């Protein structure tokens, strides 16, 4: 990530957990305890510092159901309001990704359909869900006992090589875009038009997701973006050689620019047990730093989940395991809530400043990459 310009100086308030203060009554180091007492401590900590879940496949999963009620509970999916509350989830990024094999020229329409579905679902469950577009709105929803629903990530194909479409998607609520699978963000890296897309995303406040992106694209986005980037579904490659997991050198680079690696709770990427997930969190924290690690449930995305982490109600099991390992409350608060809030606030701050200096881009791919 490029250095913020001289007039951008987020203060410590931009990263502090002032709205959800640390609870000094909780022990900050692990002490000998029974599993029950660890779980009690996990629930207490998550009450003060809830979960911001970086990836949910719920929108596409709901398309396949003839009827559902997320307020009362829905056994056909891994996510509903009762289980979100049991898991202390207070922010949920709803993926607008498309199934593999979808015809490319359907990407824009299919993404709009999913976006419309999420907005409809949120409107139909006002007691449990609330649409959010900014860090402040996420906090407001949490204070009202609602789960803040944010739109994204979406696939880059949804932009259809048009910055105008990017702006239209942003106006409808899109907040994360995955930069892979297009001519301007490919295995070969980021093109000149791709760099212009990143700059326009910074101006709008749309976060870049690099999970699945090539090393060349990732390196260029890290150098170009004025806003911290996300890896919404990436664990540690040193522990499990999955292609979407990150090598240590990239984790270290991500830590240097204060990006965010959101570890997925999937057996394929992290392993079959809650301890395996905790191993990845330990590793990412050690290499990138405690300010650069987050959680990505990846529920309802068609993947198997580790033992004790079968649905969105299970986050306390993971936090209890981290408490057993000696994670202190400050690092846990950053993991569950604080790091994502920092990234959202920085994106909002950078966008406001950029909009004062920069008009909407009129660049076309034919002009820059032709």
TrEMBL record:
It comes from the Bacteria. Its EC number is 3.4.13.19. It holds the Pfam family Peptidase_M19. It is an enzyme of class 3 (hydrolase). The keyword Protease applies. Residues 1-33 are annotated as: Disordered. Keywords: Dipeptidase, Hydrolase, Protease. Residues 1-10 have a biased composition (Basic and acidic residues). GO terms for molecular function: dipeptidase activity. The keyword Hydrolase applies. This is Dipeptidase. It comes from Streptomyces flavalbus.
